[in-house]
Amino acid sequence: MRFASLGSGSGGNATLICCGDTRLLIDCGFGVREAERRLARLDVGAETLSAVLVTHEHSDHIKGVGAFARKHGTPVYMTSGTWVSRNYGRIPELHLIENYQPFRVGTIDVQPVAVPHDAREPAQYVISGNGRRLGVLTDLGSVTPHVVDAYRHCDSLLVEANHDPAMLAAGPYPPSLKARVASPWGHLSNQQTAGLLQQLELGRLQHLVVGHISRKNNSLSRAADALQTVFAGIAGNSILYACQDEGFDWLHIN
């Protein structure tokens, strides 16, 4: 199994996962042409995708979903709450996830995970294939026991470290948006992400990717400082940061 990112951040999110002939895109927060361009950078044709999995209805995650599905006939999976929260237009093959039940797409098993976020029925995902587990975990405002249990046994993990609390407080956002980001239904701070990672089995991680980093309310140096003690537990393995413009290139889970 391998995974890559088309981009990660408030300007658009999409994570690509391949296992055998199965190719999943988690979210499509870019317009169709831009998504196609970013897929081509990873040597993947848009028409070859097996499905798009949607996490929630915020525009940086669903901007291109409807149009992409219509153009390429791509099946789309999302929760019922995510579906009714927006008008996506016609989706040729829509699969509604009920009660966060697991499902299978080709060679990949998908476990939806309920998370606390200010959306109608948000889901993050744990992906399993070829005996390996990849966790994709962004857009949550607090760490619950359910989240810890779901992501405890991953071989690779993409997790958000969205903001530094001091930068958020002093930053340009209006008070209402600052309160939303920092709330238990907003986004994880660097310190919250560090706390989550300390509860997981880091020794088995082949790759740790830190993503969804705010350009206005965080910096790579502040995220790294907050996570420094955690990184000591995964020395020798791959630790990198997903960026908005380029995402990250293919990472293989052996």
Properties at a glance:
alpha/beta; seven-stranded mixed beta sheet; 9 helices; 28% strand; 254 residues; Metallo-beta-lactamase, Chain A
User: Number of domains in the coordinates?
Assistant: 1
Gross geometry: globular
Low-confidence stretches: none
| CATH topology label | Metallo-beta-lactamase, Chain A
Identify the CATH architecture. Answer: 4-Layer Sandwich
- CATH class descriptor name: Alpha Beta
Distance between the termini: 7 Å
Helical/strand content category: alpha/beta
Oligomer: single chain
| Percentage of residues in strands | 25-35%
Measured as a percent range, the helix fraction is: 25-40%
Q: How many beta strands in the DSSP annotation?
A: 14
- Kindly provide the radius of gyration, computed on alpha-carbon positions and rounded to a whole number of angstroms: 17 Å
CATH superfamily: Ribonuclease Z/Hydroxyacylglutathione hydrolase-like
User: Total helix count?
Assistant: 9
Helix and strand pattern: EEEHEHHEHEEEEEHEHHHEHEE
**What does the largest sheet look like?**
7 strands, mixed
If you average the pLDDT, what whole number results? 95
Strand order, sheet with most strands: 6-5-4-3-2-1-14
What does this 3D model show about the protein?
There is one protein chain. By secondary structure, the protein is of the alpha/beta class. It has helices at 32-41, 59-62, 65-72, 80-85, 145-151, 165-170, 175-182, 190-197, 220-231; strands spanning 2-7, 14-19, 22-26, 51-53, 76-79, 94-97, 103-105, 108-114, 123-129, 132-137, 156-160, 207-211, 238-241, 248-252. The protein has a seven-stranded mixed sheet. A hairpin with a 2-residue loop joins strand 9 and strand 10. Helix 8 (190-197) packs parallel to helix 9 (220-231).
